[in-house]
């Protein structure tokens, strides 16, 4: 065991760091270099960059110094114990030789015990019986041997623990010195990928949120529009009108071609991508019946216009783009007129007395009808709500001007034209308190279907 400890101490003194103070450092020394498992031992490796001394390395060095001092102290103790063992071994040998000599060599003390005569008492003890002395020395030697083995095991365990710790520390240093850049780049790339994925997911969620919000807002707007229309209609029916049997049974009369007779719709239009406008007209003016209605918005006075002036046919204007309609209503009789339009490809249709007389496309395609404008009955607007031209004024009577934000079915148009049903507009309904008249224009009671039969 002691030889094994001496070998460990020698190994540590040669390869583990600087020698103990006072030791001779002459002789061959070896330098060990750690290499990866898959590397070729015959190929020299570049020297590893040494890391700067850290607090952990300082603590390790202090532990090494303390361990060295402990080893020296234990070594000194072992030497002292060995001297004691040698001395006790010599005494034990003398005692054994004395026990084998004749009893005459001793003297009887008169009390049944023997004492030896020794010229020198090296232990400083009183002479005792040789058998007891031998047993006592044997126990002492066994105790010293046990203590010596315990010290050797303690020193060996300390050395092994130190060498294993130093080897692990060296591996950690080599790993940290060889691969920090590669690991850092790998972690940065991974973090970058995760960040990009997170940003992409957040963007997708934001898009979905915006889309849901827009759909919800559009649905809410449509619902509110329908509810408001129904509420207005209910209010109008509840209030009634003292001059007319029902709110829609009246007509607006514009007897002169001037620039100051006109009617005005109080409500305005929302943004629309399709519309249907229907009305009853009666006119005998020539040349041309004029402008039954016009809708102007800021920046575009001719957003929607229905006009016949001079010797031109009836025209529909959407965003100042023109389509000629094959209609004829200047015979002095009541006629039911309906016009549909959709922003998809600019498709339009023209109905007279329930029959479709014409259709076309490319009339302001993909243009939405702008909101917030003014609807004027009987005049064409050069500015929003004003600057009328007398030569373009409507002369005659009109009634049941209704507007929807969709294209009506042909059957619905036919039912209104033959008086089998009445459909108020969901955007602009024809009711008395929604129509104002100015400049001498008047409102008269009218039962449309009876009056139409009377005219025929």
What does this 3D model show about the protein?
The protein is an alpha+beta fold and 456 residues long. The longest helix has 60 residues. It is rod-shaped and about 165 Å long. It starts with a helix and ends with a helix.
Please give the structural blueprint.
Layout: H1 2-15, H2 55-99, E1 107-108, E2 114-115, H3 130-178, H4 180-239, E3 250-254, E4 262-265, E5 274-282, E6 290-297, E7 300-308, E8 315-318, E9 321-324, E10 335-342, E11 347-352, E12 355-360, E13 374-377, E14 381-383, E15 386-388, E16 396-404, H5 410-417, E17 435-438, E18 442-445, H6 448-455
Helix pairs in contact: 1-3, 2-3
Essential attributes:
single chain, 456 residues, alpha+beta, seven-stranded antiparallel beta sheet, 18 strands, rod-shaped, disordered N terminus
Structural class: alpha+beta
Summarize the amount of helix as a percent range: 40-55%
Order of helices and strands: HHEEHHEEEEEEEEEEEEEEHEEH
End-to-end separation in angstroms reads 137 Å
Mean pLDDT: 77
- Order of strands across the widest beta sheet? 12-11-10-5-16-3-18
